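Quick one before lunch.
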Amino acid sequence: MSIHRKYLLAFTPESAKLPVIAVLVQKFGIIPNIMQAKVNEKGGRLVLDIEGDKESLEKAKAYIQEQGIDMRELDKHVSRDEWRCIHCGACVSICPAEAFHIEPATYEVVFTPEKCIACEACIIACSPKAMKLELW
Ligand code: SF4
Ligand code: SF4
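Model of the iron/sulfur cluster complex:
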């Protein structure tokens, strides 16, 4: 049975040179979906949704960790209570995943949950308590 797991990967300058995605596909038969990538020769971060059977996912996870890549499962997510949001914009600049933007036409703050890496910064920054942490 095929299952999904979502991870945040942190690369060093050394591990950023590795063909990790290609190995996941070719060696472990994993289907990767890159949800967010900020990686260059200096390192960076990648949010990755991977799909495969349980055994393949475990092997893929072990391979990634063996390469010295820090790997954290995103087993939580945040949601927004639209009724509470006052579009103050406090969350826009503090979000490391750029999950918020201000719509130029309306000046409303738009939340894109697919970009979220569940760092929880907006939950602290949101005075009206519109942002909520939920476990999967
Ligand atoms: S900080 Fe909270 S109230 Fe302000 S725009 Fe963001 S979600 Fe809305
Ligand atoms: S928890 Fe909030 S601040 Fe952190 S990535 Fe998600 S939307 Fe952005």
